[in-house]
C-alpha cells in the first residue's frame, strides 16, 4: 500500500530562520512527487512537481528536492506570509495506477 | 480567472437527506477529481474522471455517486447522507491523469 508521511506535524519558526520539511514516501513506481500549500479555509495550491531522484525546483524562498525515498521542502529566510500547511503527494502505479497519495501535512507558523 | 469553482461553500444536512455538490473548471482540463479532507487524515480520493465520459472509483467511493456532465463539470452526489460523511469536499482538475491538480476552495458539509 502506498504511504506518504510528513514530518514534523507542526513547525514554528522565527522570521528569517531557515528550515526543512520532510516527506517520506513508499510508492510503487513513482511517477511524480507533488508539493502543495494550503491556507486555512482554502483548497491546496500547487507548488512543485518532482519526477526523478536528484531533481530540484525553486520558487522564491522555497526549494524542493527529491531522493529515492524522501522529498524535502527547504524554506530559506521565511516570512510570516509563508505560514500555511504544506502537503506532499506521491503519484504511483499501485492498484492499476492513477492514484495520488497525500500526506497529512506540516503546519508551518512563521512569527515576527 | 476562476479556475475550479465549487458550490455550495457550506451545507448542513440531516441524516438520510440527499444532495449534489457541483464543480466546474474553466481550464479546459481533461481529468477531474473529488476528494474529502478530514482532520488528521490526508486528502482521500472519492471518485475521478480521466476524461469526459468516464468515471472511476477512488479510495473511498461508498455512499457517493458522480456524474461527468461535460468537459467542464463534475458533480458528486450523496444519496442518503450519514454523519460519517461530514467533511470538507474538494474538487480538482488536471490536464491529464498524473499532471498537477488544481483545487477549488471546498464545500464544508455537516450531517446531523
Walk me through what this model shows:
The complex is a heterodimer of chains A (112) and B (112). Chain A is mostly beta strands and 112 residues long. In chain A, 0% of the residues lie in helices and 58% in strands. Chain A has no helices and 11 strands. Chain A has strands spanning 3-7, 10-14, 19-26, 32-38, 45-50, 56-59, 62-66, 70-75, 84-92, 99-102, 106-111. The radius of gyration of chain A is 14 Å and the shape is globular. Chain B is mainly β. In chain B, the strands form 2 sheets. In chain B, strands 2, 4, 5, 6, 9, 10 and 11 form a 7-stranded mixed β-sheet that branches. Chain B has a 4-stranded antiparallel β-sheet with strand order 1-3-8-7, with no helix packed on it. Chain B is globular, with a radius of gyration of 13 Å. The chains are: A mainly beta (112), B mainly beta (112).
Count of distinct strands of chain A: 11
- Secondary-structure-based class of chain A equals mainly beta
Number of helices of chain A: 0
Kindly state the mean pLDDT of chain A as a whole number?
A: 94
- What is the succession of H and E elements of chain A? EEEEEEEEEEE
> What is the overall pLDDT average of chain B?
95
Spatial gap, N to C terminus of chain A: 41 Å
Outline type of chain A: globular
Q: Determine the fraction of residues in helical runs of chain A and give it as a percent range.
A: under 10%
Strand content of chain A: over 45%
Report strand % of chain B.
over 45%
Flag low-confidence runs of chain B.
none
- As a whole number of angstroms, the C-alpha radius of gyration of chain A is 14 Å
What would the principal axes of the Cα set say about the shape of chain B? globular
Largest interface: A-B, 24 and 23 residues
Amino acid at each position: 500500500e502506498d504511504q506518504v508521511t510528513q514530518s514534523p506535524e507542526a513547525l514554528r519558526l522565527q522570521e528569517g530562520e531557515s528550515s526543512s520539511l520532510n516527506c517520506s514516501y513508499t510508492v510503487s513506481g513513482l511517477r511524480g512527487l507533488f508539493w502543495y500549500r494550503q491556507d486555512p479555509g482554502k483548497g491546496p495550491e500547487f507548488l512543485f512537481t518532482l519526477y526523478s531522484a536528484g531533481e530540484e525546483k525553486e520558487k522564491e524562498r522555497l526549494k524542493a528536492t527529491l531522493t529515492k525515498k524522501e522529498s524535502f521542502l527547504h524554506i530559506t529566510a521565511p516570512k510570516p506570509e509563508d505560514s500555511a500547511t504544506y502537503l506532499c503527494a506521491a503519484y504511483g502505479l499501485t492498484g492499476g495506477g492513477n492514484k495520488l497519495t497525500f500526506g497529512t501535512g506540516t503546519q508551518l507558523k512563521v512569527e515576527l | 480567472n476562476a479556475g475550479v469553482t465549487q458550490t455550495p461553500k457550506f451545507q448542513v444536512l440531516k441524516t438520510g437527506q440527499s444532495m449534489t455538490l457541483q464543480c466546474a473548471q474553466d481550464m479546459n482540463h481533461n481529468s477531474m477529481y473529488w476528494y474529502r479532507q478530514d482532520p488528521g487524515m490526508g486528502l482521500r480520493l472519492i471518485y475521478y474522471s480521466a476524461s469526459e465520459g468516464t468515471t472511476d472509483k477512488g479510495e473511498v467511493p461508498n455512499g457517493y455517486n458522480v456524474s461527468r456532465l461535460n468537459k467542464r463539470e463534475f458533480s458528486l452526489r450523496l444519496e442518503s447522507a450519514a454523519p460519517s460523511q461530514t467533511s470538507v469536499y474538494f474538487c480538482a482538475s488536471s490536464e491529464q491523469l498524473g499532471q498537477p491538480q488544481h483545487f477549488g476552495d471546498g464545500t464544508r458539509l455537516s450531517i446531523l
